[in-house]
Amino acid sequence: MDSKAILRDIKAGNFQAVYLLHGEEPYFIDELSNAIEKYALEEHERDFNQSIVYGKDADFPSLLNDLRSYPLMAERRLVILKEAQDFKQLDNLDAYVADPCLTTIFVICHKYKTIDARKKIIKSIGKNGVLFKSEKVREYQLGDWVQNYVKALGYGITSKANMLLAESIGNDLSRIVNELDKLSIIIEKGSTITDVHVEENIGISKDYNIFELTNAIRDRDILKALKIVNYFESNPKAANLIIIIPNLFKFFSQLMRIHFLPNGSRESLALALGVPPFVAGELAKAKNNFNPKMIAANIMLLHEYDLKGKGLGNSSATQGELMKELVFQLIH
Hints:
By secondary structure, this protein is α/β, with parallel strands linked by helices. The chain has three domains: 3-134, Rossmann fold, CATH 3.40.50.300; 139-202, Helicase, Ruva Protein, domain 3, CATH 1.10.8.60; 210-331, Zinc Finger, Delta Prime, domain 3 (Up-down Bundle). The protein is built from 17 helices and seven strands. The chain has helices at 3-11, 26-39, 46-49, 60-68, 94-98, 120-128, 139-153, 159-169, 173-186, 195-202, 210-218, 222-234, 241-260, 266-273, 277-286, 292-309, 319-331; strands at residues 18-23, 50-54, 77-82, 104-111, 130-134, 156-157, 192-193. Strand 3 (77-82), helix 5 (94-98) and strand 4 (104-111) form a beta-alpha-beta unit. Helix 12 runs antiparallel to helix 17 (319-331). The longest helix has 20 residues, at 241-260. The chain starts with a helix and ends with a helix.
């Protein structure tokens, strides 16, 4: 069952006795647990019928008592176990979830990793409740995800603004949503979010960011690339070597694939690489600047400087010096 379907049921008041929300992406887990907290009880019912406990502090007998208690002047009780990955007695809940109290909604929030599918608790909840596995949005899906989220807010977003967010923040959905929600407060509904909005309100420069650095390397524009690296050196929060290298690796990997794809049309490349058509078009142009031999050499360089950035084989060079060396060699 996907998060949207679960969310629809929650908003419609169709609740299950047990929810196990687990997986690598915390955003969807928070979204669902917050929705249950909002819709399961009326405001005046919460004082006596809602318990929120955290894995590190949870005491099994007390938790079980909460789960088995009857609601007071309400239709149901709500018990949320947050940070369940830190609850050492999680397996002991199997007996309860196999035969849950029907007047209690029990929500288990297990973040950052999935629970082994072979465990009894997984099988029991599969029969008696809702089992939701929260997976990371893949990099190639991030642009579409942002666009859909923005659309749901009632806005549009330009391709460059979308790319700025994706390249600068990565697939940290909670942070992306937080930044977009802030923009929705100050930008008129129905407007299109641009790179200028992102620069002025989120603090990501439209000229000095990883997206523009990749473009400068793509165009083999050494002056622009070094100017951006100098900015990064002076503003370490904007970007660092550890963030830059995976983005450049992605760029050169895509470029290598383009050299060997049979159909070179923009639409075919976009489909094969899982990127928007305008990005595929820019990558196709870069193909002429880097042949496969150069790309392979650059991928080796990225591996070398990744190790240096982590302190292996590097005893004195600063992050800024390493960035400049790397950019110069990638272009030349």
